[in-house]
Design goal:
There is one protein chain. By secondary structure, this protein is an alpha/beta fold. The protein has a domain at 24-140 and 156-235: 3-Layer(aba) Sandwich (Rossmann fold), CATH 3.40.50.10780. The protein contains seven helices and eleven strands. The strands form two sheets. The protein has a seven-stranded mixed β-sheet with strand order 3-2-1-4-7-8-9, with helices on both faces. It has a four-stranded antiparallel β-sheet with strand order 6-5-10-11.
Length: 284
């Protein structure tokens, strides 16, 4: 027997098996990154005030910790959506080059380029408006929205975004933020992996994990969450769906201002349709 030729064929066969196995396991991940829930952030001056540059840096560092977990879990592609405010927060040079960054406005679409992803991670999230003790709690707009309801259930960005992801057949596998954010995520997405990066003690205060420890936790929890991506159920929503918004009166304090008091008679708007995404973005 020509052992050299046999050995060459064996190596080729084993290489093909490894390639096919790796190809079968290849998957893409979508990371939607907000800022208020990032590790190291405890007040509004870090997200839109005098310390905003610090907030942008902390956001980029947290994104990179998540990206590291994605690739450690075997992901072959990662899309990161800069989802805070205008979507123009992090410096593209500061984000891990293995990921593709989406910035700026994406009219009519909550998660641009979500198609093809097997999992969605909600990073740096915050609790819904009026959540007691939560850091920077609000529901989409701290300046205009006092509260939201989805099919009669009070909801924030976590529940609505999980519903939108389900409309695209993508499960939310992990949510990161303060302890109140984690509790809200578990209530809306049973079985979701969570990552508690701080404990909220008020609308403008928190007990923070050391940032490096929080980053290690994010990487570890991301990897654990993605290992469960095939068994995570989609968030169930009954259709036609109804979203209700209670709007603040003009000139109101932001919902996370320490002196904020809920309006007794907020303006109420309710819409019903076959897509939560279209309802949210005003396309119904």
């Amino acid at each position: 027997m020509d052992t050299t030729a046999f050995g060459g064929r064996l190596v080729g066969v084993l290489g093909a098996v490894v390639f096919l196995t790796c190809s079968a396991q290849a998957f893409n991940v979508y990371v939607f990154a907000d800022m208020e829930g990032c590790s190291g952030i405890a007040g509004s001056d870090q997200v839109s005030g005098a310390r905003a540059e610090e907030g942008r840096r902390l956001m980029a560092e947290e994104i990179n910790a998540c990206i590291a977990g994605c690739f450690a879990a075997g992901a072959t592609g990662v899309v990161v959506r800069d989802g805070h405010g205008s979507g123009m927060n992090v410096n593209a040079k500061s984000v891990d080059a293995r990921a593709r960054l989406v910035q700026g406005a994406t009219p009519g679409v909550r998660f641009k380029d979500l198609e093809g992803a097997e999992a969605l991670i909600l990073l740096g999230y915050h609790a819904k408006a009026l959540t007691s003790g939560a850091v920077l709690a609000h529901s989409y707009s701290s300046a205009t929205i006092q509260g939201m309801w989805l099919n009669g259930r009070e909801v924030g960005e976590i529940g609505v975004d999980a519903a939108i992801a389900a409309e695209h057949h993508v499960p939310v596998v992990m949510v990161a933020g303060d302890d109140k954010t984690v509790a809200e995520a578990q209530a809306w997405i049973p079985g979701v992996v969570t990552c508690e990066t701080k404990r909220g003690t008020g609308p403008q205060s928190a007990e923070l994990l050391p940032v490096d420890a929080a980053h290690r936790l994010i990487t570890r929890q991301t990897e654990a969450a993605l290992a469960r991506r095939k068994t995570m159920p989609l968030t169930a929503v009954s259709y036609p769906a109804t979203i209700r918004w209670d709007y603040l009166p003009p000139g109101s304090l932001r919902t996370y201002h320490p002196a904020f008091q809920p309006a007794a008679n907020p303006k109420r708007v309710e819409k019903t349709g076959e897509s939560v995404e279209r309802l949210l973005l005003g396309k119904s």
